[in-house]
Amino acid sequence: MNTARSHINIHKFLPHRAPMLMVTKIIDLNKETVTTEFKVTEDCIFVKDNKFTESGIIENAAQSCSAIVGQDFFAADDLEGEGNSVIGFISGIKRANIFILPRTGDTLTTKAKLLSNYSSGNFSICTMECKIYTEKELVADCILNFLIQEV
To answer: How sure is the predictor about 2, in pLDDT bands with cuts at 50, 70 and 90?
Structure first.
């Protein structure tokens, strides 16, 4: 995937499934950045007392970030995610600041950018910065390290 894409069905490209899918859709994706949305619902496993928990916020950030480097493992013409054979792991959390806990019904907009990437064959090691918003309020910002591997 060499060009920017928008409004991608994330369910085709992430290995996560309910109840662990913390991204509703990809709004925009290119080689260095991604913007995603996630609607916090009452039945989300990371909701407690009508608030989205810290664990859910980090998982939302991780799933959003993985789209940037993960796209390199799909063919450019694979618009349906047929080649989905990628797994990813958070290998380190360099920084995580959580300012508020969103409430059920809120829609999160998550913006991530690639800071560094080392790719070798069937894996990538990368660092990404991520900011999560609800409406115009900053929910969290973090810097995460990942290992993304083709299986």
So the answer is: very low
Does residue 108 carry a pLDDT above 50? yes
The 3 state secondary structure assigned to 7-50 is EECHHHCCCCCCCCCCCCEEEEECCCEEEEEEECCCCCCCEECC
Q: Are 52 and 93 in contact (CB under 8 A)?
A: no
CA angle 121, 72, 97 (to 5 degrees): 105
Whole-structure pTM value = 0.83
The helix/strand/coil state of 58 is helix
Judge contact between 4 and 28, C-beta under 8 A.
Answer: yes
Amino acid in position 47 = V
Contact assessment for residue 59 and residue 33, using Cβ atoms and an 8 Å cutoff:
no
Residue carrying the six token digits 């913007």: 35
Residue 95: CB atoms within 10 A of its CB come to 9
Could you report the per-residue pLDDT of 22-69, keeping only the tens digit for each? 888 889 888 899 999 999 999 999 999 999 999 999 999 998 888 777
